[in-house]
Every structure is written in structure tokens, then in C-alpha cells.
């Protein structure tokens, strides 16, 4: 019998999670792409930057990270003294998978005059090989602080990198990774949906390919999209990102209508992140009960990765001057 099937039938999981949260002095951090039931019992729900900030600041003894592995690793890098648990250790990310550290190291070494700006969706090893980490909500602000003549490698998301190149006119070398979830939106189906809802704006995440971003009225991080939904004038929004974020929109704005952008078969279910979906209430309960699976990290690796993450946190709050930047 595995641990999940051994959970007593009829156990009130929500009450048990609450009890364990208090007993362990734990904080539950959840990403907007988590299942609604997990979002609803999280102490804080946010985008990658907000979750990193919370992880760095919390005074809890345990962080139960309901997101994917690179997010829980980030929490451990920033809060090494805490126990960090991830309900399912297989919750990876296609962007992280696209960027093996040895290949990334060779790429860097082939371009010694470039600095490496890396999207937070990468392994701790790649973070340690990078100069500055960015999230989708901080990338523009951080890039604006880098001198125009500084050569840059951007990885692992070629769509976010391409979007930044076009928007800010920066010539960056791009690593060829993609998010399988945002890659699956269909331009043809989105065009059809727009015709069915004339006047409804489209909000897209910059992990989407350019043919989807070009159809969007707003492009931004998950928090940015949520904010756009709050302030838009109309009552209907087409949402081109992982559809679980719609749960927060419907909670905050029950009078508005949110429609998930479709995938190639016209059914937006193919845009559910399979990694995020691995976390369940049962696994969260077990993680809090057993304090496993736990993120462990070599201290040398942690300190290496922390440098580029610290730089992100400083630059995202605007506390680093241009003179602080340069080659490794
Ligand atoms: P943000 O929440 O930072 O926009 O990131 C989206 C994402 O894909 C996380 O994996
Ligand atoms: Fe990775 Fe995409 Fe899933 Fe985010 S939505 S965790 S980028 S695969």
C-alpha cells in the first residue's frame, strides 16, 4: 500500500492540513497554476517573484511549496535554515529540462563577453552559472538597468527572450527552450474565439510564442494578468496562460467573464501544466505530516545560485546601480 492509499478513508484533509500547518509552524505558498483547492488553503498565492520574496522573508519553520521544483529550490536557496517540502518531487518544468547545466556552461564559455540573464524557470545549477535571474514580472525592469552595450545571453525561454528583444530593442542570444503549456495555444483557435467575443481583450503570458503575443492586448506575468483583469473596462477577458489562474479571477471578480484561450483542438485542457497538476491535497497533507519530500542542496551550489537570485531581488526593487553590473 502506498502512502496515499494508506490515508484513512474519510479523513478531513483540509482540517488535517490546517492542524499540521499550526503544529509545524508552516507556511503554505501556492502558485496561481495550482488546483483551486490548493490555492484556497495556501497562506499566500502569487507569481514567481512574489513567491520568492515571501520565501525569503517568512519566519515560519517549514515552507510547503505548492508549485514546481525550481520554485521550491528557490525557496531553499533564499531560506536555507527552513525545511522546504514540495508535495511531489516530480513536479518539474519543460524549461528547466531544456537547459542541462553542462550544455549551458559550454554555451557561456563560447560567449565570454556576454553576461547571462536567466529566467527563474531553471535548475539551481543553471542559476549558479548565471549572473542575474529574472521572472516575467521583473525582466523588463532588470533589463532596463543593464547598459545598452552589454552583450547578453538569455535563457532558457526563447519566447520570453524574444518578447523582451522585440519590446526593448535589445539584441540577446537566446537559449532555445519553450514552455510546453504556453506553446500549445493555437493562433487559429484564438482568432475564432476573438470573433465570437468581439471587443473582449486578450491577456497573454510572455511564455507564449510571438503569434499568440501579437494577438494580445496585454502581455505580462500571472500577477500582471490578474491586475489587468481587475482594471479592464469590459466584462469579458480571454486569458492565454495556464487556466487555473482563472480561479483567482472568478473569486475576485465574480461579475466578469473569463475565457481560457484554446489549444490546437479547441479545448483549452491541453494548456493545463502537467507538472503543477501533480500536487494534490493528499500529497500536501503527507508532505506536512512527514516533512518529505524535502529539498536538500549542496551548500556550494546554494551559495552560487543565491548570488544571481539576490541580484534579481535587489534589481527588481531598484536598489542596484548600473555600475554594479558586468561580466562574471
Ligand atoms: P509567473 O507566475 O512568474 O508569471 O510565471 C509563470 C510560470 O510559468 C511559472 O512556471
Ligand atoms: Fe514550466 Fe510552463 Fe509548467 Fe510554468 S507552466 S512550470 S513554465 S511547464
Structure description:
Helix content is 40%, strand content 15%. It has 15 helices and twelve strands. The chain has helices at 13-23, 36-41, 48-57, 69-78, 94-97, 101-110, 124-128, 139-144, 158-168, 187-196, 210-213, 222-231, 246-252, 281-290, 299-316, and strands spanning 26-31, 44-46, 62-66, 83-85, 114-119, 132-134, 151-155, 172-174, 202-204, 218-219, 236-240, 257-260. It has a four-stranded parallel beta sheet with strand order 2-1-3-4, sandwiched between helices. It is globular and about 55 Å long. The chain starts with 12 loop residues before the first helix and ends in a 12-residue tail after the last helix. Bound molecules: 1,3-dihydroxyacetonephosphate and iron/sulfur cluster (SF4).
Amino acid at each position: 500500500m502506498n502512502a496515499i492509499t494508506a490515508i484513512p478513508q474519510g479523513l478531513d484533509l483540509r482540517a488535517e492540513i490546517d492542524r499540521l500547518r499550526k503544529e509545524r509552524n508552516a507556511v503554505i505558498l501556492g502558485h496561481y497554476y495550482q488546483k483551486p483547492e490548493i490555492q484556497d488553503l495556501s497562506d499566500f498565492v502569487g507569481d514567481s517573484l512574489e513567491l520568492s520574496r515571501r520565501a525569503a522573508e517568512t519566519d515560519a519553520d517549514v515552507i510547503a511549496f505548492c508549485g514546481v521544483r525550481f520554485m521550491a529550490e528557490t525557496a531553499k536557496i533564499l531560506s536555507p535554515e527552513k525545511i522546504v517540502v514540495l508535495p511531489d518531487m516530480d513536479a518539474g518544468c519543460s524549461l528547466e529540462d531544456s537547459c542541462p547545466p553542462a550544455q549551458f556552461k559550454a554555451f557561456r564559455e563560447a560567449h565570454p563577453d556576454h553576461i547571462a540573464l536567466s529566467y527563474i524557470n531553471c535548475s539551481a545549477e543553471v542559476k549558479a552559472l548565471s549572473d542575474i535571474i529574472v521572472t516575467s514580472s521583473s525582466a523588463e525592469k532588470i533589463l532596463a538597468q543593464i547598459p545598452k552595450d552589454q552583450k547578453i545571453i538569455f535563457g532558457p525561454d526563447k519566447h520570453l527572450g524574444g518578447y523582451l528583444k522585440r519590446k526593448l530593442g535589445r539584441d540577446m542570444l537566446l537559449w532555445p527552450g519553450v514552455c510546453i503549456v504556453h506553446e500549445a495555444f493555437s493562433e487559429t483557435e484564438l482568432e475564432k474565439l476573438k470573433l465570437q467575443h468581439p471587443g473582449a481583450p486578450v491577456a497573454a503570458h510572455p511564455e507564449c510564442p510571438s503569434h499568440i503575443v501579437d494577438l494580445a492586448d496585454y502581455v505580462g506575468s500571472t500577477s500582471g494578468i490578474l491586475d489587468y483583469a481587475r482594471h479592464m473596462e469590459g466584462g469579458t477577458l480571454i486569458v492565454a496562460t495556464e487556466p487555473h489562474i482563472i480561479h483567482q479571477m472568478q473569486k475576485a471578480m465574480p461579475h466578469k467573464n473569463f475565457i481560457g484561450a484554446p489549444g490546437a483542438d479547441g479545448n483549452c485542457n491541453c494548456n493545463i501544466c502537467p507538472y503543477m497538476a501533480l500536487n494534490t491535497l493528499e500529497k500536501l497533507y503527507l508532505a506536512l505530516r512527514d516533512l518529505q519530500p524535502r529539498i536538500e542542496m549542496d551548500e556550494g551550489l546554494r551559495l552560487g545560485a543565491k548570488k544571481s537570485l539576490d541580484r534579481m531581488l535587489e534589481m527588481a526593487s531598484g536598489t542596484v546601480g548600473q555600475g554594479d553590473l558586468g561580466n562574471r
